[in-house]
Amino acid sequence: MNQALKKECEINQGFYRFINEEVLPLTGLNSATFWHDLTALVEDLAPENRALLRTRQQLQDQIDQWHLANPQFDMESYQAFLREINYLVDEPAPFTITTENVDQEIAELAGPQLVVPVMNARFALNAANARWGSLYDALYGSDAIPSDSGLAPCRKYNPARGKHVIDFAKDFLDQVCPLEKGSHHDVASYTVYFQHLLAYFPDGSESGLVSPCQFVAFANSKADPSSIVLKNNGLHIEVVIDRQGFIGQHDLSGIDDIKVEAALSTIMDLEDSIAAVDASDKIAAYRNWMGLIQGNLTAEFDKNGHTMERHLNPDKIFNCKNGDEYRLHGRSLLLVRNVGHLMDTELMQDAQGNFAPEGIIDAVVTSMIGMLDLQHTHDMDMSKRDIHNSRTGSIYIVKPKMHGPEEVAFTCRLFGRVEDMLGLARNTIKLGIMDEERRTTVNLKACIYEAKERVFFINTGFLDRTGDEIHTSMEAGPFLPKNEIKQQVWIQAYENANVDAGLTCGFPGRAQIGKGMWAMPDEMASMLTAKIEHPRSGASTAWVPSPTAAVLHALHYHQVNVNDVQQQLKGRAATPLSKVLTVPLMAAPEKLTNEQIENELANNIQGILGYVVRWVEMGVGCSKVPDINNIGLMEDRATLRISSQHIANWLKHGVCTPQQVEAVMDRMAQQVDQQNAGLAGYRNMSPNSEQSLAFKAARALIFEGEQQPSGYTEPLLHQYRQLAKQAG
Ligand SMILES: CC(=O)SCCNC(=O)CCNC(=O)[C@H](O)C(C)(C)COP(=O)(O)OP(=O)(O)OC[C@H]1O[C@@H](n2cnc3c(N)ncnc32)[C@H](O)[C@@H]1OP(=O)(O)O
Ligand SMILES: O=CC(=O)O
Ligand SMILES: [Mg+2]
């Protein structure tokens, strides 16, 4: 049953109640005015939103036609054509962004950014609390410390493994906060002498830090500190000392743990990592966002036979070395990712029966909830309030999947209208631009220009970007195997051009330059080796999939000073557009062996089925799915977009046949069923795959992939998930 608002517009009743009963009373906004304004907003902006989507399709049709008419690709004529159709626009004259009131986690500090599905309260709380994490736990519990030669973690503590953990962590201290003389390994005790940290060795000798100012605070007494807080590259390290502690009792200096400042910011995701297909799903997601902002979200769950309750951590309070209080934010700075411009939502319907653009409703609701934090900020003495988010009065919205500057301009107009509706000062709502569609990449400066007063990040969402790479050039020819696409010139050019754009547009000090997700959540040793390249490339943040990854990736920002790197990079030669536009096609598809083709299909299809079955049948928007080498991969809608577009491309160009794909799908359905055996709520796809909604969804994603708007997966996922919900 719907709530008739004006006679030409209907609001979903659950949504109406949620806003009226749970949100509006906290905002001081008038209900009648709010609904009137929301209706007007949707009436005004929905047609524009739809027009932007038509433009996407028109451009895609023109690009398809061009490739068909130009089988011999010529870069010069290609670029001329892209300009002619307005896919490529003129670069704006040099400018710098003017974004103000940005929290220091975004503007000044460099460190990991965690992403989490907001609908999972247990994970979302964990993510918000992942501002701080135990280095000992992250090392002990991951493959960062190898498991061979008696080092495997076991049910009881393995002291041999523990020794490697402690050695690694103290090596790290020696590296980033070295002592003037000697090593942290050999320290017998730490004390604070006036404003200095002193380390004493067993022979009675002592040493200070090479950089004494790295010592900033302590807990308990100077003579017998229970914590020592160090600071390097703006990030804190807490050395916890407890001579009675589980680890500390066996440690020469009594160090019980080393905690690091890890996820400086966290994206609460309403987009690609969640499955929200109807009003009740959306309300659940909004409610969690509200609980996080208000500070009262809790989650009760069973872990290892114990019932646990999780809530948000308070701030951390220490003694400053000069005697004052030293207060550190206890939680990640929370950002919220809205959906893009594509999908509509049943939360609201116009007179013609059209659902409202979901991105418009997300902007209004997530901002209105974000506003509760700002009201608290103004109303309350900050030192008395434990849970708050922005200390500069900003709301941070990450907007995904925008195509080019006119879509960014539209988002900014939308945010401006929302600010007017909510009575917020202009540019309170900050915009994070995902550089993850090709039309945004090639016009990035023009995109930033449109948002120059409110942009707070650009981030290379290379997963969606790869999907869009395939879809945009679907007609150009067959693409390389998925892993080889990553090695081609276009991607490095895209990554470099993104950093360069951020630097030339004045991001340092105002906004983040971000890099993409580490999509192998269990491969922490590899991450420690590979992801240091992100700060080295000039990025001030990069995405991680879990708190453990956040802790370990944080080490990189101690090892690399991003400010210095950014200074060095300023003024490097611009990346040629031709490199960004070089499509990663296969030169000689006929050289692929049948085995290579089968392997590629098997890998893609295992990922697709493994992800889609949980999405459609169980409403799980982000999963860890083993690939054919049994490495667990983070799969979300963006990785699904790549896999499904890749097979669609190979089908189109005859690299594989539909029969081959069907056969691999049947084989992989059995495999995925086996992988999920015993999982509560799981429904097998085989042997009656024709009755499985998940299997049908996966088939549609592949065989109808070419026709999907920009190759996106959400229209089909939503359709099949809704059917699964109806089927109960
Ligand atoms: C292309 C893009 O758009 S990328 C952005 C979207 N992707 C994401 O947001 C990825 C977020 N990550 C995740 O959802 C998960 O890590 C997955 C699905 C990849 C793996 O989940 P699982 O298989 O359940 O992880 P695993 O069993 O190893 O670990 C679970 C533990 O880690 C925690 N955890 C895992 N990921 C996260 C996270 N992102 N935030 C907070 N906590 C997390 C869980 O809370 C849980 O700990 P608990 O028992 O104390 O609650
Ligand atoms: O959103 C991130 C991506 O890689 O896509
Ligand atoms: Mg993305």
Automatic annotation (TrEMBL):
Its main location: cytoplasm. Residues 596-698 form the Malate synthase C-terminal domain. Glyoxylate binds at R337, E436, G461, F462, L463, D464. The active site is at R337, D636. Pathway: Carbohydrate metabolism; glyoxylate cycle; (S)-malate from isocitrate: step 2/2. One of its GO terms (molecular function) is malate synthase activity. Residues 157-232 form the Malate synthase G alpha-beta insertion domain. Mg(2+) binds at E436, D464. Keywords: Acyltransferase, Cytoplasm, Glyoxylate bypass, Magnesium, Metal-binding, Oxidation, Transferase, Tricarboxylic acid cycle. It is found in: Cytoplasm. It is an enzyme of class 2 (transferase). Residues 334-575 form the Malate synthase TIM barrel domain. Monomer. PANTHER family: MALATE SYNTHASE G. This is Malate synthase G.
